[in-house]
Amino acid sequence: MRRPASNPRRVTAPPGRVRASGGLGAITGASARLSGPPGQSISLVEVTDLHKAFDGNEVLKGISVSAERAETLVVMGGSGSGKTVFLRHVAGLLRPDEGQVRVFGVNIEKLSEEELLPLRRRMGFVFQGAALFDSLTTYENVAYPLREHTNLSEPEIRERVLHFLSLVGLGEESLELLPAELSGGMRKRVGIARALVSEPEIMLFDEPTAGLDPTNSKLVADLIAQLKSGVCDTAIVVTHDLDLTKTIATRVAILIHGRFAAVAPLEEILRSREPEVQAFLAGEATTAWTSSSASA
Question: Rounded to whole angstroms, how far apart are CA atoms 230 and 95?
Answer without folding.
Answer: 32
